[in-house]
Design a protein that fits this description.
Blueprint (H helix, E strand, L loop, with lengths): L3 E3 L1 H14 L4 H16 L10 H9 L10 E2 L6 E5 L5 H19 L1 E10 L5 H8 L4 E5 L21 E5 L7 E5 L6 H10 L8 E2 L5 E2 L2 H6 L1 E2 L5 H16 L6 H8 L7 E9 L1 H4 L7 H14 L7 H13 L1 E3 L1 H13 L6
Parallel strand pairs: 3-4
Antiparallel strand pairs: 1-12, 2-3, 4-11, 5-6, 5-11, 6-7, 8-9, 8-10
Helix pairs in contact: 1-2, 1-13, 2-4
């Protein structure tokens, strides 16, 4: 059986059809499809079409408002508020991002608060949407309890991703996006599917013992990266993107779902900064000074984050996205059967 090559646009359209077949409105399905196709385009398999099944299970369980229309709240200074009304975060971000960029340019910095959303995606697509406006940006959100704090042995915090981006002229932005756990839960699931052991230090089992068994890890708890440092950052995200914005923290999100087979509902916080406004009146150009730093990093032979992802994107946009025969067959099944294709 041979691989199939699809264009980015064709894959996006196909994924959107799958979600519309499952009852999701075009507004919601198109936004989700753009994010999933971006994952495949950039060779981020853990956030590509692999995520479709989890989205469909969550829809089937009635945990997503199929026809949700995000709502932008009246202007509130530097805080942009979008109510997702139970829909996916993607459409809510697409509504709020232009207003966030406008206010960050006007005020020097601004924050986008998304409430009551279902979240499954990587954060770098959102970061890149803001660096495209010559803004620096941060994004963060809780998840559901799957990570034990350093020194603990029971899942309490989420994988709690954090992303940052810095705009660059005539080249790809500087972007990083990582879970505050040693690995994303999706990475452990991919190990489980492949039947391969986890690296040491990724997880503990249900009794709090270190494990390399993906199944035991999924039934136990993941560990934060960097020991107490990652644990502290994860806690910060619980506070800023959960407590501070009046939305669910990771424990509350898991309590609402009852299991890990569905996607969590919570909120998200995105911050945007205008480097030109912050450096105004100071000697030198912020963009040029940043390039001096990047040159110093790469001059030592180090690689800037996301460079492999950007290289994969260029290949995919020029030559298409390659999917295996098994992946195509799975897409066929999802498009044909809709929600009946998932348990």
């Amino acid at each position: 059986m041979t691989d199939t090559i699809l264009s980015h646009d064709d894959l996006t359209a196909r994924v959107s059809r799958i979600f519309q077949r499952a009852g999701l409105s075009p507004l919601q399905s198109d936004a989700v499809a753009r994010t999933i196709a971006a994952g495949e385009r950039d060779a981020c398999k853990s956030h590509g079409i692999y995520r479709i099944d989890g989205c469909l299970r969550t829809i089937k369980a009635g945990m997503v408002t199929l026809d949700a229309v995000p709502e932008l709240a009246p202007e509130d200074g530097a805080i942009v508020r979008v109510a997702a009304h139970g829909g996916f975060s993607n459409a809510a971000f697409e509504l709020g991002a232009p207003e966030l960029a406008r206010r960050a340019k006007e005020l020097g910095m601004a924050a986008l608060v998304i409430n009551d959303c279902t979240h499954f995606a990587a954060l770098w697509p959102e970061i890149e949407a803001l660096t495209a406006h010559d803004l620096a940006a941060m994004a963060m959100c809780p998840s559901y309890s799957s990570v034990a704090p350093t020194g603990g042995n029971e899942a309490l915090m989420g994988t709690n991703p954090f992303a940052f981006g810095w705009p660059r002229e005539n080249t790809d932005p500087y972007v990083f996006d990582f879970a505050t756990s040693v690995a994303a839960r999706g990475e452990i699931e991919l190990h489980r599917r492949a039947g391969t052991p986890l690296p040491e230090g990724w997880a503990v089992d249900a009794d709090g013992n270190p494990t390399s068994d993906p199944e035991a890890a999924l039934n136990g708890a993941m560990l934060p990266f960097g020991g107490h440092k990652g644990s502290a950052i994860a806690t910060m995200i619980e506070l800023l993107a959960g407590v501070m914005i009046g939305d669910l923290n990771s424990r509350e999100a898991l309590d609402r779902l009852g299991n890990f087979t569905l996607l969590p509902a919570h909120g998200e916080l995105i911050l945007a900064f205008d480097p030109a406004r912050f450096s105004a009146g100071r000697e030198g150009n912020a963009m040029a000074r940043a390039e001096t730093l990047f040159d110093a990093i790469t001059g030592q032979g180090a690689r800037l984050p996301s460079q492999r992802r950007f290289a994969a994107r260029k290949r995919a946009m020029a030559h298409g996205i390659t999917l295996s025969a098994e992946e195509i067959a799975h897409l066929d099944r999802l498009e044909e059967r809709g929600l009946d294709a998932v348990a």
